[in-house]
């Protein structure tokens, strides 16, 4: 089953500015953990953010969960975004809030403003948050402030928060770039295992090719806004990587 279908996607940030994405086509199936690799400036982060219109497409079509994202009005877009969990490289946590409150903020799209202001979340949501915090190994840190945590712990909070949306697609924007190699591997393994457990496909922009090859079943290689490779991880050859990274300045 196809969860996401992108056709002819183009993005430029201003009318006279350079084109960042130059006609990208790809699909995400229901069992995919798909990595996007490529040198800095290839358009990887722009591609991730265009999927749910955090970046506005210039041209093309994005069919997400049977909806054309490019045609949605503001209300329809908010409703669709409920189904998309995002995990960011900067963690995007509220430092002064507790771990528990940060995770529960993943339900804000379903909870009225007054109820969320006074932390009046349904018991079902609280129980779900406790489950995910245990699942990511943070059950002993529930009442800590987010700024008291290490980088790896903060990213685990971000994972739990994204899962609280009960997403039908996960978008990962450089989820390990701020982490050391050991913690990066742990975080990628955790995301992959939970995604499999919940049967949620994931689209992951990642700078570390080795992590992509180790944890993802499919890889898209990008260079200068173009797609250079799209296939199963085991089919990615050294020659493909040489072409993808040919323009990178070392």
Automatic annotation (TrEMBL):
Matching entries from InterPro entries are given as: AAA+_ATPase, ABC_transporter-like_ATP-bd, ABC_transporter-like_CS, ABC_transpr_PhnC, MetN_ABC_transporter-like, P-loop_NTPase
Q: Does the keyword Membrane apply?
A: yes
SUPFAM superfamilies according to UniProt: P-loop containing nucleoside triphosphate hydrolases (SSF52540)
Q: Which residues form the signal peptide?
A: none
Pfam families linked to this entry: ABC_tran (PF00005)
Record keywords, A-Z: ATP-binding, Cell membrane, Membrane, Nucleotide-binding, Translocase, Transport
Start and end residues of each ABC transporter domain: 6-249
Q: What GO molecular function annotations does the UniProt record carry, in alphabetical order?
A: ATP binding
PROSITE patterns per the UniProt record, alphabetical: ABC_TRANSPORTER_1, ABC_TRANSPORTER_2
CDD domains given in the database record:
ABC_PhnC_transporter
Q: What is this protein called?
A: Phosphonate ABC transporter ATP-binding protein
Which organism is the protein's source? Aliiroseovarius salicola
